[in-house]
Amino acid sequence: MQTVTTLSDVSQVYRSLKASCEAEVQGRSDVIDLILIALFADGHVLLEDHPGSGKTTLAKALGNCIHRPSDADPRFAAFRRIQFTPDLLPSDVTGTTVFDPNQNQLTYHPGPVFANVVLADEINRTSPKVQSSMLEAMAEKQVTVDNVTHPLEETFLVIATQNPLDQAGTYPLPKAQLDRFLFKVRMTFLSREHELEVLAMKYPQCRFDSFVAAELIDAPMREIRPETIAQARQVIQREVKIDRSITEALVEIAGRLRDEPRVAQGISTRALVVTIPALQARAMMQGRDFVSPDDIKSLAFPIFSHRLELQPGISSGDLVVEQVMLPVIESLCRKSIR
Known about the structure:
By secondary structure, this protein is an alpha/beta fold. It is 46% helix and 16% strand.
């Protein structure tokens, strides 16, 4: 396994992961980038869209990119899916302790959360008790069963999905749990061209003479192991620089959001802490070794909007974030020009 020591190595890993995902999912380049940012920034993602939009396929495609060596811990898998339903139990997520008559002792059986990429499908379909069973895993990379703590791997990513329609019988995630997700991404319907691509890839007989499939990113495929991702995170943290003006701008945006009359509850300090590695990861993807104001402008909506508790009658968190953020970004750009 080739070690990752420079930003050039990290960029190669990123391009390889993106090429693999785009080979399976068409028309979702921007969403793939956000998920890869979360992977490199050690965060989690909440995808929101209608059924059949490719959320599950995208999560599975990323999980299939991770190769585990034959001598790896057998309790873990590269990818696992949890289908959340109203009758699910917390032990169905974290695992349970059962009596082994052969050894005459209690034995812990790990749950599906023991994986590098976990798809929490329709997370709002299950009870708050089961939803909360994910909190410890997402926040501390461990699960506690029968007063025994079991660590998860360092490269642990949750991709949760929820359907914005058909809310009967659902349990909306509370703000405290939404805060555990680095991004909330609202996916939209594919364009006409991308839907043609999907059909042409699935059914070759649907390919038209005038139809030209989208070209994949020209990146050499390489074996991506969990250790590779862990190394990439360290390189990004070490090599991508953040000027003090960037952190001051983030604190200024947070303060303005908390004082905004349309906001009942502003963003937490934790939101600012997790924003830093996300900005560094995006800068790397853009081929830079420093964070720019454009990185803040690009990631502010998926990071901040879902963390805001809006006043009654206010429906768009994106609009509030945009109006609060733009003056700060403009001031930051003027300082950069000087």
